[in-house]
Specification:
single chain; about 110 residues; mainly alpha; 4 helices
Length: about 110
Amino acid sequence: MISKQIKDRLLALQAALDAEDDLGSADQGTVQLDQTSVGRLSRVDALQRLAMAQATQRRREAQRLRLAAALQRLEDEEYGYCMECGEEIAPARLAHDPTAPTCISCARG
């Protein structure tokens, strides 16, 4: 029962990332150089928005990979155990970040 709740939470986080992708896709288009309608500062602002959207997309992709890895650990019945030392990961740590692959000691180490 607990593993189903964990899986549901991980899948919900994946769905949220997909929804964020849909919202952020508009800001990732090519910045057009049209000097008649957009001033120099507006182009710089558009380039900055593009860079921020791309950085956000990279963070979402990294999180998506962490979610996939956590789902695989759940499938392999290794979820909740540190990938470094094999000890159980504290439930509070997993509650905070359900994708955490290591215990707090190994994460600090």
